[in-house]
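Please check the following for our workbook:

***
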Amino acid sequence: MLIFPQILFWVFFAGLFHNYVFYPFLLKVLSGKKGKPALTTDESKLPFVSVLIPVYNEEKVIKEKLESIIKQDYPLDKIRVFVASDNSTDKSDSIIKSFAEKHKHILFYHLNQRNGKPGVVNVMSEKIFELYPMSNDHIILFTDANVMLEKSTIRNLCRHFVHPEIAIVDSNKISVGLGTKGISKSENTYLTTETMMKNREGLLWGLLIGTFGGCYTLRSTFFEKIPDNFLVDDFFLTMRTLENGGKAINDLEALCYEDVSNDIKEEYRRKSRISAGNYQNLKLFRKHVFPRNKLSFAFFSHKVLRWIGPFLIIGMFFTCLYLSLYMGFYQLILAGIILILFVIPLLDFVLKIMGINFLFFRNIRYFVFMNVALFEGFIKYIKGIKNNVWEPTKRNQYI
């Protein structure tokens, strides 16, 4: 009578444990034996780079963004910067125009109607390839307006493309603006862990599962148009590239900087939207859900289990609740689950109001809120996604 619910409970637990504990540990152990790939320092071998920057009402950060591009330690004759204003209504256009007038390698485009970031990528890809056709020596750098680049970022990203099998090189995002009162430190812990996992996946298999969409490079011959109403374009392009035989890696020396939100409401809104896009990708790439090769194993371990995490947690809770009626052992486990899911998040909320911030409590609350956002994203996906136009989160000006 109790065998089946016990099996279910431990299957749910194993899924979460594998995703959050065992798989990251496995990557760390296996990648420790891998050396760094050979890189080019010969400028004549560096590829041509088209930098694509979608912009919507980014007057607070676009000046600094363009300055970070202009100051790159990369041959100027091998860079063209395509800045696309997605029908911005603030001062973004005038700021971009002033840069384009002074710097001939910056090309400004104003789009007369909102397209959303994936739509901008589709529109601008046509314009880019009209001027500079797809080729193995033509690289696209996708980067967001609020992500600032180190002087050497483009060089560090593009030095890998001397190897013909490399199709994607991802950057290392450093979070700035961390505070103690909000969730930024918890978000930074999550993002740092994700970056290291992707770096190790790349070292082991050339299969990092999903780039940092704010700054990554793609060999132009691997580009495909984003499907209509898709929300997460970078993950789509990464998986398509891996399916088509290209390798994807992460360069920890290709540094870029992004302000991390301290506002839990803003971050929740962003994560629930991204989560809806995750389920779009899950449906599209469902043939890789069950592990049968390196790609499907990494996809299942890193992303699929993460995306179904809310359902694994719900399954654990209710099977444990049922088992606790008959077995004292599961009463103790249920108490632990209630503590993690309800008591600590509520306690952290109360302590925050009192001006008391414990990072351990905040991390647990962040974990719970992230899974709630995933669940809401699933509901949005089920209801149907009508368009991919998005209002960006609040920007802080970099200093």
User: Anything to note?
Assistant: DSSP finds twelve helices and eight strands in the chain. Residues 43-293 form a domain with the Spore Coat Polysaccharide Biosynthesis Protein SpsA; Chain A fold (CATH 3.90.550.10).
